[in-house]
Amino acid sequence: MSKVTIIDIAEALGITPSTVSRALGGNPYVKESTRKAVQDKAKELGYERNIIASNLRSGKTSTVGIVIPRIHRNFFSIIISAAESVLYDAGYSVVICQSHEKEEDEIRALKTLTGSRVGGILISHSLSTKSGKGIMESVGRDVKLVQFDRVFHDIPGSTITNDDSNGAYNATMHLIKNGYTRIGAFSGYQGTDIYIERYDGYKRALEHAGIPLDESIVFPGFIDREAGYASAAKALERGCDALYCTGDYSALGAMDYLREKGISIPKEFGLVGTANEDFTSLISPSLTSTEQNPREIGEKAALAIIRLMRGETSGEDIVVKTKLIPRESSDRKGSLHK
Amino acid sequence: MSKVTIIDIAEALGITPSTVSRALGGNPYVKESTRKAVQDKAKELGYERNIIASNLRSGKTSTVGIVIPRIHRNFFSIIISAAESVLYDAGYSVVICQSHEKEEDEIRALKTLTGSRVGGILISHSLSTKSGKGIMESVGRDVKLVQFDRVFHDIPGSTITNDDSNGAYNATMHLIKNGYTRIGAFSGYQGTDIYIERYDGYKRALEHAGIPLDESIVFPGFIDREAGYASAAKALERGCDALYCTGDYSALGAMDYLREKGISIPKEFGLVGTANEDFTSLISPSLTSTEQNPREIGEKAALAIIRLMRGETSGEDIVVKTKLIPRESSDRKGSLHK
DNA sequence: TTGTAAGCGTTATCAT
DNA sequence: ATGATAACGCTTACAA
Question: pTM of this prediction?
Answer without folding.
Answer: 0.82
